[in-house]
Amino acid sequence: MTDAAIRIDGVVHVYEAQDGSEVPALGNISFDIRDKEFVAIVGPSGCGKSTLLRIIAGLIHPTAGRVAIGGRTVGEPRSEVGIVFQAPTLLPWANVLNNVLFPFKLRRRLDDAVLRTAHELLDLTGLSGFERKMPRELSGGMQQRVAICRALVTNPSILLMDEPFGALDALTREEMGLELLRICGEQPKTIYFVTHSVTEAVLLADRVVVMTARPGRIADIVPIDLPRPRSFDLAATAEYHASAQRIRHHIFAHRARAEPAAV
Amino acid sequence: MQPTLAFVLLIVLWEASVRAYSIAEFLVPAPSAIFAATVAAGSNVTQHALATLFTIAAGFLASVAIGFPLAVAIASAPLLANALYPLLVLTQSIPKVALAPILVIAFGANEVPRIIVTFLVAFFPLVISIAAGLLATPTELVELGRSLKASWLQELFRIRLPSATTFIFSGVKMAITFSVIGAVVGEFVAADRGLGYVITSSMAFFRTPLAFGAMILLSIIGIVLFQIVVVVERVFFSWSISDNQGL
Question: What is the pLDDT of chain A when averaged over all its residues?
């Protein structure tokens, strides 16, 4: 059990709605993410997968239960964690390079080694030559690449990604997923990856956690036994279809029960 | 091109009408008479204009110096916001023209009451827009700062304040325009210099052309100051101006 990079232990989260009523977002979630494991979280809107991400990140506190990273309970944001949000969340007033360097600018620890790392990452993501461009001069896909560089520049051991490609068009999205694996292939990381896309989850992850909504619960944890490196060709294999089918079954079976009238 | 043409046409029409109907100069002076009277007053008018400009600058700077921390306080603590908002609205609902004579009694017939009136007129839109801008920072940008362990000051100066730029500039544009109005209101009530004083004193002697001249100078000052803010925003904060705002 020592190889659990992230341990999620009986996490419950309850929101207080505007009218004062309590809305359960997460109902008793427990699972471990192993070191260097890629775990994708799939589920319908409102299943609390983004809430869980924010709890792991130390941005919000769970109502009950605890999350531990490297054996230590998370109480506040940790420096070994990098986050990529759904929107690129770039500083519109800073150019690409300064956006990537922002974590170090806040910590006032900018040196040549950091600059080199930043340039290497920009190279790796095909952004070299765009260092002086402003975020709004870039396409959505390029902006999200910058955000990924910013998350990786501190060399975190854990990467939390909240539907990072959700705002991109379908083609860019498929390309970005595999690109992420390629980038992280050089320095393997523990990844918590929230997505709406079953295809994306199966294609990228080692395990897929399927969640159901209101309150968010784990329906199943599906191991994906596809070989690495992953490619689009794998989508034609029987293993791929079996896993995708198993995940869809959980999501839609639950939906059919919850909304019997829905077509 | 069209605005210039329209403007010139208006001046010509004005001049022609005044001459054609031989309207008395103390009622509506012709543009040529306004120009002649203002130029004749020359260095004197310049002195008055500089005095007004000083009042505008002092009042505006005071509204920034006091308005900014006030906006930060409102944006960072809901309790403080609840306590301060009614007071702010109160200062806004007081008619400044009524307040000015009272200030003169309290502070004497000097520069201070004029600066206070200017400040009171200008600081409200500034506080409201800066506070709104600070609160409109995208949640994810704030979360990014928190995840990178930004301190409160870093969050304010490196995340919230820059992302409020558009709001701040709209507040500054209003504040600078209102400062001109505030300074003139102050000068109307108690002053021995300034363009507001030129207007009241020349009207007392029916020297309408000079009053018109002072009024026109005031609007020129207002326009120039406003444009300075616009240029500063374009040059130094071009990233905050969206592309489809090219008016």
Answer: 88
